[in-house]
Structure formats: structure tokens, C-alpha cells
Amino acid sequence: MAYETLLVETRGRVGLVTLNRPQALNALNSTLVAELNRALDGFEADPGVGCVLITGSEKAFAAGADIKEMSGLNFPQTYLDDFITAWDRVSQRRKPIVAAVAGFALGGGCELAMMCDIILAADNARFGQPEIKLGVMPGAGGTQRLTRIVGKAKAMELCLTGRMMDAQEAERSGLVSRVIPAAELMAEAMKTAETIASMSLPIAMMTKESVNRAYETTLAEGIRFERRVFHAMFATADQKEGMQAFVEKRPAGFQNR
Ligand code: HXC
């Protein structure tokens, strides 16, 4: 099915989504969010996809929710339409998602990046939660995810002043895993996504689930969860293959089961 606001393709075992509303710096309107969910539904259902990569343009990953679309909304509309719940579906995906961020990742754009599992940033990337300048605050997880990731002081400052961080500051504060020269961002992000996609898919999915537990439970419960899942991994053919391949000094050929 055709997309109006995205470019969607599969490269090997990587599902690639490119946000594509250049005229609005990839502002996330309702069509884009619906299409993004449709693309992710397809990748989740496709056993040939082991990792998803979401990116934007060189100028903007996404400059936030579409302000022009949002500006006229009233409270009952936002409440009754459950505005934003569709966004959050990105964070509930089970396959690993890498975000490759160049240029602006602001407001909902920063929140979308934080819903992904790994953020790789081009050296021209800029992150921020400028909603306060519009008379609102982050509404797609920004006050919660950013605070857990970078800590209270920086999250508070960014949310209360709307100041942007550059890629280096974002890396120092733990928001991004690596900063990459802009010209190499896509090649490097594809390499990362391909590496993840070459692993056993169920093991990668369980690993994602386990790391995410760290945000949702106590340490003791998280450790218990990790141990249960770790034990369960010994029921997979991929555990046998992975360890046998090491012993035989050859690359593992995972069967994804
Ligand atoms: C709608 C947007 C937009 C947005 C940019 N555009 N951001 N349209 N929603 N979020 C449009 C501009 O109106 C303009 O269209 C075109 O994209 C190019 O933008 P410029 O401003 O001309 O570019 P530039 O001068 O380079 O400035 C870039 C920028 C600025 C600093 C990123 O565009 C900006 O401040 N954008 C808004 C960022 C923001 O406040 N984001 C938070 C949104 S609220 P025209 O037609 O004039 O050429 C949010 C809440 C999420 O995200 C909560 C969950 C839903």
C-alpha cells in the first residue's frame, strides 16, 4: 500500500522507514503517525525482518507534532480522540528499533526517537522539548522518558526553557549511544541494524524486553525477570547453534527459533 508521508522498504533483514514530509521538517501529523504504525505492523508481522531503522532527512529527524494540525484542537477532541495513544504504539513494538537522527529532533520528534531502542545521532543532530514555548508541555512521554534517561536536572532545564542540546551533549547525557559524522550516519546506522538483524530474532526480542524491564520494575524483580528469560533461552535452537558455533570456531547460523 502506498504511503503519503513515509518511504518504506526492506533491505535484507532490516525494515527501513524514512519520515518524508520535507516541506514541514517531518512534523508528525496524524497521517504520518498512522502510516508509521502501519509500516511497523508490517515489519512486526514479517519474519524476514529482524530490526527496524527509523530515520528522517539530513535537516530533520522530526520537528515535532504538527503544530498547524494541533493548534485548533480543544480538550474534548484531544480526550475523545485519544490523541497521542497511537504514537505510543511505537514504544510497544517487540522487534528492536534503531533511530538514526540527523538535524532537528524536537518535541514529538525527540519523543519518537526516545520510543526507539537505540538512538544514533549525526554530529548535526539537535534534541529538545520546546513545547513550553507553545504554551504546552511534552505529551508523548517527554517529561517521563527524558527524565529517566538524562536525569532530573537536565530534563527539567530542557522542558522548562525549551533549550536544544547538540549531539555531543546528548551523548554525554546518555540520550544517544553514539555520535557519527553526518555523511556516515545512514551507513553506520544500517550496519548497526544489520548486526542486530543477524542475531537470533527471538533472543534479540527477549533481550529488548529484558532491558526495558529495568525501567518498569524494581531491581530485584528485574533480575528475577532476566533470570527466567535467560533460563528459557536454553530451550531455543539458536542457543544450541550459537554455543556450538563458538566451540567449533565458526560463525553462528541462527534459525530464529
Ligand atoms: C508544523 C512545522 C513544524 C511543526 C516546522 N514546520 N516545524 N510545521 N509543525 N512542528 C514547518 C514550518 O512551519 C515551515 O513551513 C517549514 O516547516 C520549515 O520550518 P522553518 O521554521 O522555516 O525552518 P527553520 O527556520 O530552519 O527552523 C527550524 C525549527 C523550527 C527550529 C525546527 O521550524 C521550529 O521551531 N519548529 C517547531 C519546533 C517545535 O516547537 N516542536 C514541538 C511541537 S509540539 P512553511 O510552510 O512556513 O515553509 C510537540 C508536542 C508533542 O511536538 C506532543 C505529543 C503529540
From TrEMBL:
The keyword Transmembrane belongs to this UniProt entry's keyword annotation: no
Enzyme nomenclature, EC number: 4.2.1.17
GO biological process terms, semicolon-separated: fatty acid beta-oxidation
Keyword Lipid biosynthesis in annotation: no
Q: Which reaction does it catalyse?
A: a (3S)-3-hydroxyacyl-CoA = a (2E)-enoyl-CoA + H2O; a 4-saturated-(3S)-3-hydroxyacyl-CoA = a (3E)-enoyl-CoA + H2O
Which domain of life does the UniProt lineage start with?
Answer: Bacteria
Any one Gene Ontology molecular-function term assigned to this protein's record: 3-hydroxyacyl-CoA dehydratase activity
The record ties this protein, via InterPro entries, to: ClpP/crotonase-like_dom_sf, Enoyl-CoA_hyd/isom_CS, Enoyl-CoA_hydra/iso, Enoyl-CoA_hydra_C
| UniProt KW keywords | Fatty acid metabolism, Lipid metabolism, Lyase
Which family does the record claim for this protein?
Belongs to the enoyl-CoA hydratase/isomerase family.
Checking PANTHER family in the record gives:
ENOYL-COA HYDRATASE, MITOCHONDRIAL, ENOYL-COA HYDRATASE-RELATED
> What's the stated role of this polypeptide?
Could possibly oxidize fatty acids using specific components.
- Read off the NCBIfam families from this record: PRK05862.1 (NF004517)
Recorded protein name is: enoyl-CoA hydratase
